[in-house]
Amino acid sequence: MWPAEEYTRVTFETAKPVRHQFFTVPDPARLVLDLEGVALDAELKSIVAKVSADDPYIRQVRVAINRPGVARVVFDLKSPVKAYVFPLAPAGSYRHRLVLDLYPETPRDPLLALVQPRPDPIGEIARAPVLESPPGIAAEPAAQAPPALPVVRLEPPRAATAKPAAAPEIERLVTVVIDAGHGGEDPGARGRGGTLEKNVTLAIARRLKERIDREPGMRAVLTRDGDYFIGLAQRVQKARRVHADLFVSVHADAWVRPDARGSSVFALSERGATSAAARWLAKRENESDLIGGVNLDVKDPVLARTLLDLSQTATINDSLKLGKAVLGELGDINHLHKASVEQAGFAVLKSPDIPSILVETAFISNPQEEKRLKDTAYQEKMADAILQGIRNYLAQNPPLARAKLAQNP
Hints:
The chain starts with 7 loop residues before the first strand and ends with a helix. It has two domains: 8-104, Sandwich (Immunoglobulin-like), CATH 2.60.40.3500; 112-135 and 148-407, Zn-dependent exopeptidases (Aminopeptidase). The chain is built from ten helices and 15 strands. The protein is α/β, with parallel strands linked by helices. Mean pLDDT is 80; it is low at 117-165, 302-311 and 402-409. α7 packs across α9. It has a six-stranded mixed β-sheet with strand order 11-10-12-15-13-14, sandwiched between helices.
């Protein structure tokens, strides 16, 4: 079970596919799931104890035999939900899965969440291989009209010799979406010491958000704020819903050889990858949907057009500029795996109008770098370096005002 404010996921893993039926019952709100050919054994009964008190949607679970050969699982809900139940074929280390996703009837408004920003608690989540329970998420702020955005100035990038020019003035806040790679059932890469990529990426993403929120004229949004799975397409959707100016996806690299090391930055490629390693990495990251579990029966035609639209040369060029600025800062804190920004077909970078980069902070498969990724000081240095790269980029490439964007789509 993966409870989170955004949605709660319940997964049944079995050796072979399970036939099922489900329906909802109002007043009080319940969801009933019938599993055919499943015995009411200790394993199934253990689901009762897996419900956490702070689960936003599930109050309790009851199991019983409904009729011969059919086990019934009843979810007593705290409020009405939108439920999706779908099977997943074996992927990664998982066998057959039956997935139950519970979403709120009224989706959270990501723009309202920015009206009253809250500080993110930064725990030492990367020190443990597995999170026992996802971090709590603050309640959604009450609906109200967003405040007027102030006129702010971006600070100029630091320079070793030349005096920097005055920073350009912008008439709105710059929104940076920070994407912590993997999460929930998709752990990402695993270090030899047991460190999971999903924990490292969330720790660094939270530190980066904390720093961006302190910057004048900037704000940050996390695609996930806990240990739960978000599909690649959903990450792109979230960035577009909050009108993001920049998108930064945080990852920790892995390779078959333990001596591979260094940090890297990637941008989207319309054609082929710039190296065999980039092509392999993109393939591995794009398989996250199969491992994490995406309901492929839910099709969004608007999103489909967005992801299939490859007429985004200008955005890719801006992504390369952003990537170069960030890569230059990463070289001050870690060895660079490649001295230039690489390109590959990462699905999470396929927003046609948002400069997007993927940062590989270090090789989690390298024992020395795995230790660094778990270190608080290194996480902070990584967040500082990414922020400085963003500031350098924005000083030279200020985002257009919203009105100008509307006139020049």
